[in-house]
Design goal:
Elements (H helix, E strand, L loop, with lengths): L7 E2 L1 H7 L5 E6 L2 H6 L6 E3 L6 E3 L2 E4 L3 H10 L7 E5 L5 H12 L5 E4 L2 H7 L28 H7 L5 E5 L3 H5 L15 E2 L15 H10 L7 E5 L5 H11 L5 E3 L3 H5 L17
Parallel strand pairs: 1-7, 2-3, 2-6, 6-7, 8-9, 8-10, 10-11
Antiparallel strand pairs: 4-5
Helix pairs in contact: 4-9
């Protein structure tokens, strides 16, 4: 059954279940790219409708009713496992799935490697538009999937808490400044999100990810927050950690565009210190 799918799905598995009644495939794609080629039967989501902005803050979660309305407009159902993909390295599909998870729909999966993996596996695309029947998709915000600056500040001194910054090393260190202040959340470990992938764009194994996180002092039993600049790249990390058994993970919508633009949040600069 589709509700037994892993969080990261390979192309062969998706092809074999693509006609299941309880599976809905979603392309997180532009209209023009979708029309030019998509997986047969896919619904199309415009991610811009599901990402809120507030001044210099980007990547915020919209109000729950907005999510419900957008998902309903493209025919998504609460009784379905929603498998998402994109053509830009999985970050857009990951952000869409994070939003669903944060809004209470946890029957989700990511096509591992995205559309390029599907094509590379030899499966065809179809062209044309999607004209689904509207549905009645309901949501319920799930706070345990969400961190904000106040929640993070209140946990910084907790030994059972870790912050994973998945931006580039230069962003982390404060050399590449994309907000009012550069740097990172105090005590955060840095792991560029692309290091979670193999050379083919697919998610690394449990052993490899465990090793990467252990090198940075992060343990499976900790509460972990993932963040980047606007919680796009870190949405992929959020899913990757959950897929590999890290169950106490929260995403940080707004991410560094929030933390780095505030005056009441502490900031560190410099490279990741060596761990003894």
């Amino acid at each position: 059954m589709a509700d037994e799918l892993p969080l990261f799905v390979d192309p062969d598995t998706l092809y074999n279940i693509s006609n299941y009644e309880d599976v809905q495939i979603v392309a997180v794609d532009s209209e023009s790219d979708f029309v030019a080629g998509h997986i047969d039967g896919a619904h199309r989501i415009d991610l811009g409708l599901l990402v809120a902005e507030q001044g210099p803050l980007h990547g915020l979660l919209p109000e729950p009713q907005v999510v419900a309305d957008v998902c309903s407009s493209v025919g998504l159902r609460n009784d379905a496992t929603i498998v998402a993909y994109d053509r830009v390295g999985d970050v857009r599909a990951a952000r869409f799935l994070y939003t669903l998870d944060a809004m209470g729909h946890d029957r989700i999966a990511l096509l591992d490697g995205g559309l390029s993996a599907w094509v590379h596996a030899g499966y065809e695309l179809v062209d044309g538009e999607s004209n689904p029947e509207p549905s009645h998709f309901s949501v319920a915000r799930r706070d345990e999937a969400i961190a904000d600056h106040n929640w993070i500040k209140s946990h910084l001194d907790n030994d059972n808490f870790a912050v994973l910054d998945v931006r580039s090393a230069d962003e982390y260190a404060g050399r590449d400044v994309r907000s009012a202040r550069g740097g990172h959340v105090p005590g955060a470990a840095n792991l560029d999100w692309q290091q979670l992938k193999n050379a083919d764009g697919r998610l690394k194994s449990q052993v490899e990810i465990d090793a990467l996180l252990a090198e940075r002092g992060i343990k499976p039993d900790q509460q972990i927050v993932t963040y980047c600049q606007s919680h796009m790249r870190s949405s992929y990390a959020y899913l990757a950690l959950k897929a590999r058994g890290y169950n106490q993970v929260r995403g940080y919508p707004g991410a560094w565009s929030d933390w780095g633009n505030r005056e009441d949040t502490p900031v560190e600069t410099g490279d990741t210190p060596a761990r003894g």
